């Protein structure tokens, strides 16, 4: 019981975690988070999504929250003020893309206003129920400025992305931070970028520590924050390899069942009295 009472911060990923199969926040989940706010829990949303993509989705919670986006490359305060920002320099991205990327792989450069991509991808577009962050088709062979928030690769075969990751790491070992946010989504960021690092900055601002945190996630970009939290909870839809790597952590239900909200209601929220 003491550990439960020490929890003051709720940190959650979005896709595959807080959002349902339609990439939206379901009504029950919203009601639980409103109660978390009423009970003075600090709420942090930590996602691989770009902030222009994430904000319209999470704003439907209708409560204040910190927003960590692009795996930690951006931090926005509850009033939407930008608190932290880091980009990948043009020459670094150009060097990363100098490997022989299979033309079947969709490549994306996340930028402040648009995302640059080598091809139209319906599956990727479906992640935005409402389009606020627009794609722009480009020929990377003719691009002059490669500055980006992060570099994103997607393909339906995880094996292809594994091969690409090994190619990049072989030539750029230690130069970038990287993670699979989903088995078909491989992301590279500036070396210092990680969700845990960004959450550390927020906790310092709020005079709190990871011992006050319960965190939920389903991807390898959640690994460090799940490991650091006093309570790290893994979604049952997370890759088996991640579940095995963090075998000491509890596996809850999946995102379709609104398992984050159900767990918080059962184990973290104080009973509501009339």
Automatic annotation (TrEMBL):
InterPro entries per record: Cof, HAD-like_sf, HAD-SF_hydro_IIB, HAD_sf
UniProt cross-references to SUPFAM superfamilies, sorted A to Z: HAD-like
Keywords on record: Hydrolase, Magnesium, Metal-binding
Cofactor(s) this protein requires: Mg(2+)
One MF term in the entry's GO annotations: hydrolase activity
Record-linked PROSITE patterns: COF_1, COF_2
Protein name: Cof-type HAD-IIB family hydrolase
Taxonomic classification: Bacteria, Pseudomonadati, Bacteroidota, Flavobacteriia, Flavobacteriales
């Amino acid at each position: 019981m003491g550990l439960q009472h020490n929890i003051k911060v709720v940190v959650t990923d979005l896709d595959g975690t807080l959002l349902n199969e339609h990439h939206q926040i379901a009504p029950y989940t919203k009601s639980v988070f409103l109660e978390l706010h009423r009970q003075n829990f600090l709420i942090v949303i930590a996602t691989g999504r770009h902030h222009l993509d994430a904000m319209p989705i999470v704003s439907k919670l209708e409560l204040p929250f910190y927003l960590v986006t692009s795996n930690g490359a951006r931090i926005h305060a509850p009033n939407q003020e930008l608190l932290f920002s880091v980009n990948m320099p043009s020459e670094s991205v150009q060097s990363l893309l100098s490997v022989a990327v299979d033309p079947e792989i969709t490549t994306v450069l996340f930028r402040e206003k648009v995302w640059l991509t080598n091809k139209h991808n319906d599956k990727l577009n479906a992640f935005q129920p409402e389009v606020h962050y627009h794609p722009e088709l480009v020929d990377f062979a003719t691009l002059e400025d490669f500055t980006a928030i992060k570099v994103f690769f997607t393909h339906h075969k995880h094996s292809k992305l594994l091969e690409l990751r090994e190619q990049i790491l072989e030539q750029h070992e230690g130069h970038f931070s990287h993670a699979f946010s989903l088995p078909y989504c491989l992301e590279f960021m500036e070396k210092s970028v990680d969700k845990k690092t960004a959450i550390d900055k927020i906790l310092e601002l709020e005079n709190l520590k990871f011992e006050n945190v319960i965190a939920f996630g389903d991807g390898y970009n959640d690994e460090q924050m799940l490991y650091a939290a006093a309570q790290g909870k893994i979604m049952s839809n997370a890759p088996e390899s991640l579940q095995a790597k963090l075998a000491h952590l509890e596996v809850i239900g999946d995102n379709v069942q609104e398992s984050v909200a159900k767990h918080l209601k059962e184990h973290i929220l104080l009973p509501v009295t009339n």
